[in-house]
Amino acid sequence: MMELIFATNNSHKLKEISAMLGNAIRLLTPAELGINDDIPEDFPTIEENALAKARYIHRLTGRDVFADDTGLEIEALGGEPGVHSARYAGPGKDFEKNIDKVLEKMKDVNRRNACFRTVIALIKDGGEYLFEGKICGKIIRERRGSKGFGYDPVFIPDGYNVTFAQMSLEEKNRISHRSEAFRKLRSFLLKS
């Protein structure tokens, strides 16, 4: 069985990704390896943040690793919160406050188009690879649902009438930005 470090200690992401990757790949977390550092992600793009996180853990362990970074890009806000999605309302990564900020900024906005974008950076056998996933939809005016995490309660993907937070993990994993990127990663890993 292939072992890979997933450069996150986010239990929500770990649960989603473990469900997607199946039994062929065993995921390790930095915490399991005794690394509890707050991994820097202060670059101006999602791609650079994903690579920086993967490189950070790779430098510490010398092992194959992947990291992801995700941004919610809202058209009417000029692409905000984008690369700053996790810390949109401040350094504490408080998604309730992040959602409050988005809803406040959009309270008088009718054009509510938005896309979630995930980039995965993989370092394997010395090579670096990027995989991207994207899903577009709309930001609604109030929270709906209690599943998922992050901005899921206010995002309805195109073609659906429920938010990510109202979907089961299986349903969300069939269509989400993260799952698209991870399907590409999984396909690459199983071929190599």
Question: Can you offer a commentary on this structure?
Answer:
This protein is an alpha/beta fold. It has helices spanning 11-21, 46-61, 95-105, 169-175, 177-191, and strands at residues 2-6, 25-28, 65-74, 81-82, 113-124, 127-139, 155-157. The chain has a single domain (2-191), classed as Maf protein (Alpha-Beta Complex). 31% of the residues lie in helices and 26% in strands. Helix 1 (11-21) links the parallel strand 1 and strand 2 (25-28). The model has no long low-confidence stretch (mean pLDDT 92).
CATH class (first level) name: Alpha Beta
- What string, H for helix and E for strand, traces the elements in order? EHEHEEHEEEHH
Shape: globular
Mean pLDDT: 92
Label the structural class: alpha/beta
- Whole-number count of domains: 1
Q: Kindly report how far apart the N and C termini lie.
A: 13 Å
Low-confidence stretches: none
Key features of this structure:
globular; alpha/beta; 192 residues
What's this, in brief?
With 192 residues, this protein is an alpha/beta fold. The chain is built from 5 helices and 7 strands, in the order βαβαββαβββαα. It has one domain: Alpha-Beta Complex (Maf protein).
Write the layout of secondary structure elements.
Elements: E1 2-6, H1 11-21, E2 25-28, H2 46-61, E3 65-74, E4 81-82, H3 95-105, E5 113-124, E6 127-139, E7 155-157, H4 169-175, H5 177-191
Parallel strand pairs: 1-2, 1-3
Antiparallel strand pairs: 3-4, 3-5, 5-6, 6-7
Helix pairs in contact: 1-5, 4-5
